[in-house]
Amino acid sequence: MSKTTDLLATRKDLKAGMSAKDAANVMLEKLDRFSIPDSVLPAANLVAAGNIHGRLQVQAPPLNEDLRARNIAIFYKYIEFENTRDYENLEKLFHPTEFRSTTYFGGDPIAPRALTRMLRGLFRSFPDWYMTVSEIVGADSMGCAGLVTGRGTQVEEFFGRPPADHQVAIPTIHAIRVDADGLIIEHRHSNPFEDVFKAQVMAPQAEDVQAVRAQQGYDSEAARRAYEIALRAGAPEKDLAELRARVETGRRMCQTLLKETLRRCSFQAEPGDIYCKLHQTSGYGVDGIDEMVLKVDVRRRTR
Ligand SMILES: [Zn+2]
Q1: Distance from residue 296's CA to the centre of ligand 1 (Å)
Q2: In 10 A of CB 105, how many CB atoms?
Q3: Mean pLDDT to the nearest integer, 82-86
Q4: Distance 176 CA to ligand 1 centre (A)
Q5: Are residues 40 and 76 in the same domain?
Q6: What percent of the chain has pLDDT over 90?
Q7: Cα(100) to centroid of ligand 1, in Å?
Q8: Is 80 exceeded by the pLDDT of residue 211?
Q9: Distance between CA atoms of residues 245 and 127, nearest Å
Q10: Residue 27 lies in a domain
Q11: Which residue has the higher pLDDT, 20 or 303?
Q12: Distances 295 to 198, 270, 276, 278 between C-alpha atoms, Å
């Protein structure tokens, strides 16, 4: 019996809702001479015992080869449509109402057309941007991750950086999650344009620093969890309404990125729209951002 089969067999020991650390320990105990008591790594375990992101699948569905192949194919399609600037078909790959672009827009869903708007902005600065899949790192019934190299020449200011006359090549890991209908419900990767040494320090309670950063410090996971806990605890309607409003605030955030910070605009979208008043007519990816408009925007924010 192979080691892989052994590991799968141990999955019967895992329980829904188990913390990632407990699940990992159950797995480790099944392996000969490989057990790390908590006391040996107190600091590491303290970190691991935190609220690990809920999407870490302790009980992943059994591997289905057809779904795995499907997800790899969707991953390639996604890269291909970006390379050919086929925005119409690209948008069809994403779930219309439950797609999360965690890296740039955070934990609340965006409309596929908000993502293509952002990409139009990127390709305006890097007209020859082209990605190649170097390696499929992993794929299962739920998604696919691959090592992707993006190459391009920056011809206009982007994210505060002046244009350069040479091509850059940036390797990143891209990951997609796909639902039962074959629609992408999440895309994330390490933001290749971000200078980590300039990143603002996030609240220590934030689990998903990338998502919280993208939403200007708003933590959609924490807001959602607070509401669910209050609901289970039978909190009075007045409190529930307040927590619901907080969840709604994130979902209604304008679906535009600010050019200077590559973070999601923190204004609320206009009723019936996905953009705030300002970004209905200007903003990243549509026709560049008017410097005057940007200044007004910043002034409003710092008031
Ligand atoms: Zn906006």
Answers
A1: 12
A2: 25
A3: 95
A4: 26
A5: no
A6: 50
A7: 17
A8: yes
A9: 41
A10: yes
A11: 20
A12: 21, 21, 16, 12
What is residue 70's predicted lDDT score, i.e. its pLDDT?
95
* Same domain? 112 vs 175: yes
Residue 226 lies in a domain: no
Domain of residue 286: give its range. 65-218+253-302
Q: Are residues 209 and 95 in the same domain?
A: yes
* Total number of domains in the chain: 2
Report CA(273)–ligand 1 centroid distance (Å).
11
pLDDT, one tens digit per residue, over 37-55 is: 666 555 554 444 444 444 4
Cβ atoms of 266 and 302 closer than 8 Å: no
Q: Whose CA is closest to 278, among 264, 265, 291, 262?
A: 265
Burial 54-86 (b: 16+ CB within 10 A, else e): eeeebeeeeeeeebbebbbebbebbbebbeeee
Q: Which two three-digit tokens encode residue 251?
A: 């979902």
The secondary element (H helix, E strand) that includes residue 184 is: strand 184-189
Extract the tokens encoding 77.
Answer: 């399609």
Reported as half-sphere exposure (CB side, CA atoms, 13 A), residue 233 has a value of: 10
User: Looking at residue 8, what is its pLDDT?
Assistant: 44
Dist. CA 212 → ligand 1 center (Å) = 17
